[in-house]
Amino acid sequence: MELLIAATLSAGTVIALAGLGLLINEKIGVVNLGAEGMMLCAAIAGYATVVHTGSYSLGLLAGLAAGAVLAFVFGLLVIFLHTNQYASGLALSIFGVGFSAFMGVDYVQASIPSTPKFSIPVLADLPFIGPALFRQNLMVYATIALAIFLTWFYGRTRAGLLLRSIGESPESAHALGYPVRMIRLVCVTIGGALCGLAGAYLATIYSSLWAEGMVAGRGWIALALTAFATWRPARVLLGAYLFGGMTMLQFSMQASGVQIPSQLLSMLPYLATIVVLVLISRNPAWIRTNMPASLGKPFSPSS
After folding, report:
1. In 3D, which of 236, 245, 206, 226 has the Cα closest to residue 63?
2. Transmembrane residues, as ranges (predicted)?
3. Which domain holds residue 244?
């Protein structure tokens, strides 16, 4: 059981990082459908960096940078050139799938050093909870800390309230003298960097391999997760661990010889996400109440 919990936390971290990045985007009114493509490009960037340098830190930084650059370009297009957010995001996702496949051809058979081990002294030796909670990669703890920080930031700080106000009414923020478009560009870039970090973590630490299309829909799940979480960081974390738990459960069931076709077991994580979203969408008023009012809408200072 402790191994299942540990694996759930590790698997959920990929979704949580990307989901928190997309939440930062949507809090200021920008929808980015390109998470899948950004994560794939970051995955190959991070994996290739580790192959050539042997450094996991540089690999994660390379993935973060790849996600940030792609998100920056996306931000320039939708924020300053007013291209359609949904079409631009889909184009970014399609580009990322093809570009990562092309760049990753030479790395399919490449290997990287063993994943560095980490454990918290004393706590890691506790029965049951020690192996489950205190022998995780540092990225797992950093993701939990990020969710806690964002909860505090958006609820208790002046800067966080400003970002929320831009998401609700960019016109009002602009009238008060705030550079709305530059703030949106910075937030979109930060959100993309987190998606890139998620992709690099997936390839280098979680899977320790590169395979074409290895993100396997996690970017889309992270996008759906922001609505499931009603744009609240703590709920993004909870939803990510739900998906991670269902992913690990299907592997556990396959290993234990459960007589269910593997294709049906592979559907479990996605089916659970769909069921949750359907249940939430039964109350559209609740979604509208929590959704940033300017989400997906372009803003121009002259409008």
Report:
1. 206
2. 28-51, 58-80, 86-108, 138-155, 182-207, 219-243, 263-281
3. 2-290
The answer to whether residue 303 is domain-embedded is no
Which amino acid does the sequence have at 247? T
CA quadruple 186, 27, 223, 301: dihedral positive or negative? negative
| Cα radius of gyration rounded to whole Å, the chain | 19
Domain tally, the chain: 1
Instruction: Give the tokens for residue 214.
Output: 């290895």
- CA torsion angle 226 195 21 272 (round to 10): 20
Q: What is the pLDDT of residues 168-215, one digit of tens each?
A: 999 999 999 999 999 999 999 999 999 999 999 999 999 999 999 999
Give this prediction's pTM: 0.93
Q: Which amino acid is at 43?
A: A
Q: Match 């949106």 to its residue by tokens.
A: 184
Domain harbouring 109, CATH code: 1.10.3470
* 298 belongs to a structural domain: no
By C-alpha distance, which of 138, 168, 38, 139 is closest to 93?
Answer: 38
